[in-house]
């Protein structure tokens, strides 16, 4: 008898909790609906816009609208590649609180990236590449779930925010083809979670050195910094990496010499691109220990001395360009005896000597072979007659 009111109270509590939960969820999906209409209002001035088909119709719930993915009636992903979106991404997008994926590449989005975008705490994938976004990258990051950020091929300027380096789960960072300035954040790669796999910052106006944390990252597979104004020496740790597969530092102002590091064990490095810098010294024989190399481009630096014969021992080397340097002496015969080489340029150095007469057989895969402007290659009659077999540019 006595416990009756208590039970009643409990029932009242439970039902009110249930109705509160229902209200919360329905108000949330109503907010998602309102927010999609807000996005449509701001991003679809073009008659071709894919958002033209986002119309209020009770028989087509918003979760079925093109490009919208829901989980339990809540919007979790927006996939609108090449969808003729234009205008400025509105700040109301931060009201899609469960959004984890934004894929808007290949549109005409312009103006700034709203700082509110970084408030989406579930956001793990952001791809706004190939738009016309301007201004700087907002530095008020609180979406710590971010794993992929691709803002490549826009018109962004200003610095790369230091806060990007604090994202513990960041795996892919692509900011190539913008007008970014300043230096690479010192924090990039410093996160202890070792999630960073690919960093592509090519074709910007970045200055300063490669930060130590980035060079020491033990998860990094791709580092592409070509065509910037970076300088300083190349950190030896990059040559000691057990993860790095592609290191592209060409068209910068790196100085010093190539670190003479013998890789720990089988280095996975497949491409080393150092062309067009102010590197000097000799080409270290230790490069021959990078047995996975397929592409080795060292052109237009100030390397002197001879070509190390160890390079010829790289089993699957396909492209070797050491043109426009100060190299001298005779080219070791094994360099002309690499079965997988398709591109070989020794042009504009001070090599002397004679080409092996059977070169057409010992370079069976060659497609491009450039020798011009060396000190004195003795003419070899066989070369002239074999011109059509391997084009001499
Ligand atoms: C909100 O979710 C409920 C089910 O949880 C669904 O019946 C309703 O249609 C949704 N609202 C909209 C606007 O889609
Ligand atoms: C809603 O969608 C249904 C099914 O596609 C269509 O028949 C109907 O004309 C639409 N109503 C409006 C108002 O667009
Ligand atoms: C959908 O949401 C539920 C909980 O809200 C979660 O457990 C589930 O993993 C989600 N499904 C997907 C495919 O994201
Ligand atoms: C988007 O457009 C680009 C350039 O025209 C094209 O390469 C790409 O395949 C298109 N993507 C899709 C999903 O249609
Ligand atoms: C988010 O939604 C709330 C409630 O619907 C609204 O008051 C607010 O203006 C929205 N925020 C933005 C940035 O649009
Ligand atoms: C971003 O989208 C473009 C176009 O689909 C794609 O090529 C690119 O790989 C995407 N970026 C990432 C990091 O996945
Ligand atoms: C980072 O990734 C891990 C493993 O996938 C996950 O458990 C964790 O929740 C993520 N952290 C954030 C902030 O999203
Ligand atoms: C950088 O620009 C060059 C020249 O325009 C281009 O060949 C290269 O693909 C670009 N690289 C990236 C990663 O955008
Ligand atoms: C290369 O790695 C080894 C072991 O990880 C370390 O002892 C050595 O100092 C490193 N060398 C360079 C140049 O970073
Ligand atoms: C490149 O670096 C050298 C010093 O190492 C400096 O004198 C020169 O001005 C730099 N060049 C450019 C184009 O920044
Ligand atoms: C490096 O290459 C040289 C010459 O090819 C070889 O003698 C040496 O054993 C190699 N070292 C390692 C650690 O692979
Ligand atoms: C070229 O290499 C092959 C196999 O590596 C070897 O048998 C041959 O003697 C070499 N020829 C010359 C001219 O060095």
TrEMBL record:
Residues 1-23 form the signal peptide. Residues 30-71 form the Leucine-rich repeat-containing N-terminal plant-type domain. InterPro entries: LRR_dom_sf, LRR_N_plant-typ, LRR_R13L4/SHOC2-like, LRRC69/RLP. It is found in: Membrane. It is a single-pass membrane protein. Pfam families: LRR_14, LRRNT_2. The keyword Glycoprotein applies. Keywords: Glycoprotein, Leucine-rich repeat, Membrane, Repeat, Signal, Transmembrane, Transmembrane helix. Residues 78-350 form the Disease resistance R13L4/SHOC-2-like LRR domain. This is Leucine-rich repeat-containing N-terminal plant-type domain-containing protein. The lineage of its organism: Eukaryota, Viridiplantae, Streptophyta, Embryophyta, Tracheophyta.
